[in-house]
Write a structure and sequence with these properties.
35% helix; 234 residues; alpha/beta
Length: 234
Amino acid sequence: MEPVPVVVEEQGQRTRRPWVVGVSGASGTPYAAAVLRGLLGAGESVDLVVSRASRLTLLDETGIAFRDAHWREDLEEWLARGADGKPRTFDLDLTRADIRHWAAGDLAAGPSSGSYPAKGMLIVPASTACVAGVALGLSKDLLQRSASVVLKERRPLVVAVRETPLNGQTLKHLVTLDEAGAVVLPASPAFYAGATHIQDLVDFVAGRVLDAAGVPHRLYRRWKGELGGSRKED
């Protein structure tokens, strides 16, 4: 029997381990943008999956048409936009960012396999259709398939569901995801952090998503056990 070849990583090199970020068709594309900025700002690698439905939402909420062939420039325009819709709110340069885009219909993409070394997945925002698909294991597109892979590999999955009110069937699906090990994180901003702008509310939710993933950030003012602390200067 011939010996099995062993692949050894060269010294100083490391295996790329990205966070997969899935953007579904729910309203709330500013949440996704804030999470992506937070991940890249923390020096994390990112694999991005933008569903077909989410492109319609993105177009409606921002006027940006997300195109596979021009995804980097479209993404840069999107991430530079503030939650209030103002363009060039954030100064961004993605030329050195470690970010990769996978088409939603590409079921042969890296994140579709458990052997792909992803850290985990963040679905922001998560529509009720997306929640149902992941809970039922449908894997109808790359977003759902990537989530199923993350669950079966026991990796972190954060589902930032954005819908109100929630019906009984969706609540059952969310319980299923919780029992499977996912973090169910409603896009529900708090006000103790002293929000004065819509961006503050968006950043709070994005910060809680990053908290659940264990990614450091400074997106919102944390509770320090002092009443009225949000009204005081740091």
